[in-house]
Specification:
single chain; alpha/beta; D-Maltodextrin-Binding Protein, domain 2; 2 domains; five-stranded antiparallel beta sheet; 14 helices; 9 strands
Length: 328
């Protein structure tokens, strides 16, 4: 089963860059229910959102679909909200890691356009929060409380933020309520976006290595949690409705049971690719292992997926429908 996939990976990268834009233009003038636009039944189109944990999931699924089930797979690089629009317009078949987005489900789900359906849990448990390195808690034990953080925002001042402390965000398109929390708790902080997950990790690692102060938005599953000793800041627990006003959010992030979102027309086919994706679940540890191979060890994503698949047949074989014989 093991063979070089670098040429295929290059081809898939081009598809990721081009397919979404071209397909959106093609379907924009269609009058039919857009999620039912005819597609090649031998091709599965998976959204590829902008963090490495998501990429790890998508690459493993794509590898098994290609190598064990004989499908062509298009991994389409697109951010979170446009992924839903692409499902609605028939351009994508599945989002494999969704963080909430109840507003988008209302718009595109059964009570709205009827073009997407909830695919159920993917097995990953999602946590978003504010973090500091453990060495900061050791020096300032109170800093992981709201009142303690308020007293020490000056520790996070930078040349860019001046008299305010810096709160290091990731990418602006991520699920976030940080400004609402800053305002609700009257914290003297300014959000500075790193621009991407990779850029944020680079900056956090740099400061961690030098034991410099850093306060930042982060989450799990994320492979860096296994490498660095990080402590989450303790805010009041999330309660239903506490984040309804995004300008003032007096609570922590909710816990997320991460789930899959399918294009309704794809789910209605019931074909083996859909059944496979519907069956799929794995753990945070599974995702973190593949993500670490990609981001920390510098492996090609397809090669990282291949390694995991070869090491974990007892995990992925049950995802394949019973009437489909795996190739390997």
């Amino acid at each position: 089963m093991r063979r070089s996939r670098r040429a295929a990976s290059t081809e898939h990268a081009l598809v990721r860059l081009l397919a979404v834009g071209l397909a959106l233009m093609m379907v924009s003038a269609c009058a039919v229910r857009t999620d039912q636009i005819a597609r090649d039944p031998n091709t599965v189109r998976i959204a590829l959102n902008g963090w490495v944990g998501y990429e790890a999931s998508a690459e493993v699924l794509a590898y098994v679909l290609r190598e064990e089930m004989g499908y062509e797979v298009q991994l389409m690089r697109v951010s979170e909200q446009p992924s839903w629009q692409a499902l609605d317009q028939g351009v994508l078949d599945v989002i494999v890691e969704n963080w909430g987005h109840e507003d988008l489900m209302e718009l595109y789900g059964p009570e709205g356009n009827g073009t997407v359906v909830d695919g159920g849990p993917n097995g990953n448990e999602g946590v978003i929060g504010w973090y500091v390195p453990a060495y900061m808690e050791e020096e300032y034990p109170e800093i992981t409380t709201v009142e303690g953080l308020k007293e020490h925002t000056d520790l996070f001042r930078t040349a860019e933020t001046g008299d305010q402390g810096e709160f290091l965000g990731g990418a602006p398109g991520f699920v976030t309520q940080d400004q609402g929390m800053i305002d609700a708790f009257d914290l003297d902080l300014e959000i500075v976006y790193a621009g991407s997950e990779a850029s944020q990790i680079t900056e956090v690692r740099r400061r961690y290595a030098n034991e410099e102060p850093v306060l930042f938005y982060f989450y799990d599953p994320q492979w860096l949690q296994e490498e660095l000793d990080l402590v989450r800041v303790d805010f009041p627990d999330y309660e239903e409705g506490c984040a309804d006003d995004p300008s003032e959010v007096p609570c922590d992030y909710p816990a997320y049971e991460l789930n899959k979102i399918f294009r309704a027309g794809f789910a209605e086919t019931g074909d083996p690719a859909y059944q496979f994706l519907d069956n799929w679940t794995w753990t945070n540890a599974d995702q973190n292992r593949v993500a670490q191979m990609i981001a920390d060890e510098g492996m090609d994503p397809t090669d990282a997926a291949e390694v995991w698949v070869e090491e974990n047949p007892d995990v992925w074989r049950p995802w394949i429908p019973k009437d489909v014989e795996p190739a390997g």
